[in-house]
């Protein structure tokens, strides 16, 4: 039974391109095989290996994955658009008093927790969709996507904490409590996304 796993790992290691971290990829697949066996005790090692597919074809996918795929570009663009739209909305709120922007701003001020939850779900989906689309071989792509996407978050957080942006621009939404929660959530975005990346990987099999 163990020969099937050993043959799969050996073939995969030989077929992987030199440009990737072979040790890390092999470790990921060994762990993934063990998880599959634990989650599906009725399956044999051969069954799990069969579900994973041809190791040579898997290795080819590491050569074919572009630096930024359609899925990852979609999430990067969406996150940047959140900030662009938010900036335009903030400017309109201050320029056009007693307008629909004022009403919308007042509504947002009443649901700060909902804003945080919805935005956290966005980061969950980012990890899940990349994991589901690319499986174990999408780990590097996932990391690149998260680090690029989170740039505006970190810049805004830094400028807000250092008071480079007048906090009164965002009143009454930006309270001290809301700011603290946002800082904590921003720090947790990567581990949250990574958790859902692995859930997506699991669903891809």
TrEMBL record:
Pfam families, A to Z: HAAS
Highest taxon of source: Bacteria
Keywords, in A-Z order: Membrane, Transmembrane, Transmembrane helix
Transmembrane segments: 75-96, 108-126, 146-165, 177-199
Protein name: DUF1700 domain-containing protein
């Amino acid at each position: 039974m163990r020969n099937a796993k050993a043959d799969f790992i050996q073939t995969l290691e030989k077929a992987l391109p030199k440009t990737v971290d072979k040790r890390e990829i092999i470790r990921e697949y060994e762990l993934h095989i063990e998880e599959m066996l634990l989650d599906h005790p009725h399956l044999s090692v051969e069954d799990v290996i069969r579900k994973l597919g041809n190791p040579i074809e898997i290795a080819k996918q590491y050569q074919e994955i572009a630096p930024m795929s359609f899925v990852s570009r979609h999430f990067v663009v969406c996150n940047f658009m959140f900030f662009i739209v938010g900036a335009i909305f903030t400017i309109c709120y201050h320029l056009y008093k007693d307008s629909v922007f004022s009403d919308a701003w007042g509504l947002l001020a009443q649901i700060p927790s909902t804003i945080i939850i919805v935005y956290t779900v966005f980061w969950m989906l980012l990890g899940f969709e990349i994991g589901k689309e690319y499986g174990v071989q999408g780990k590097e792509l996932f990391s690149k996507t998260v680090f690029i996407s989170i740039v505006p978050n970190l810049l805004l957080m830094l400028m807000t904490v250092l008071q480079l942006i007048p906090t009164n621009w965002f009143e009454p939404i930006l309270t001290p409590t809301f700011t603290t929660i946002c800082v904590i959530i921003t720090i947790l975005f990567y581990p949250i996304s990574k958790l859902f990346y692995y859930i997506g990987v699991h669903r891809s099999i």
